[in-house]
Amino acid sequence: MEAEIQHRGEVERRLLALIEDKAGELKVELDNEKNSREEIANYMKDCLENDIPKLHGAIKAEIADKEETNEALTKSVEGEVAKVREKVSASKKAREETEEAMLEMLKDMVRKMKGEIEKERKEREATEETLLGLLENTCARLHHVK
Which of 4, 48, 72, 103 has its CA 20 to 30 A from that of 120? Predict the structure, then answer.
């Protein structure tokens, strides 16, 4: 019986040693998992405290840069549109002035032509009256001669 008690004590010690070994292994594994989770938590905390504000600042800077670029582009386009409008306006004014000058030239030509036609009509009438007078004189002479 003593041998059995000793054997049982031996088995209990081995079993306790095995349980303590397994408990120690589990404790080490739990500590490793705890350390791993703490590292991840610290990394996430670092990201939240440092990287996200940096990204937010970078995004704000990029937005401001894009807005400046858009404003500069808008001003440039507006300037070019104004130049085109000025050129169109100048072209329209020049065309209107040219049309007006051509119209005045045509009016002047019509006046001159009317004047020349009137002058020629008067000369023709004068010539016709002269010829008619000569014809009447000739007829009267012929009539007297008979």
Answer: 103
Q: Give Cβ neighbours of residue 42 (< 8 Å, ≥ 6 apart).
A: none
| DSSP string covering 73-125 | HHHHHHHHHHHHHHHHHHHHHHHHHHHHHHHHHHHHHHHHHHHHHHHHHHHHH
* pTM given for the model: 0.46
Q: How far apart are CA 75 and CA 72, in angstroms?
A: 5
pLDDT truncated to tens, each residue of the chain (146 aa)? Answer: 788 888 888 888 998 999 999 999 999 999 999 999 999 999 888 878 888 888 889 999 999 999 999 999 999 999 999 999 999 999 999 999 999 999 999 999 999 999 999 999 999 999 999 999 999 999 888 888 76
Structural Rg of the chain based on CA atoms = 61
Q: Phi/psi of residue 68, each to 5°?
A: -65, -45
Q: What does the alpha-carbon distance between residue 74 and residue 90 come to, in Å, rounded to a whole number?
A: 24
Secondary structure of the chain: what % helix, strand, coil (to 5)?
100, 0, 0
Measured between alpha carbons, how far is 127 from 117 in angstroms, rounded to an integer?
A: 15
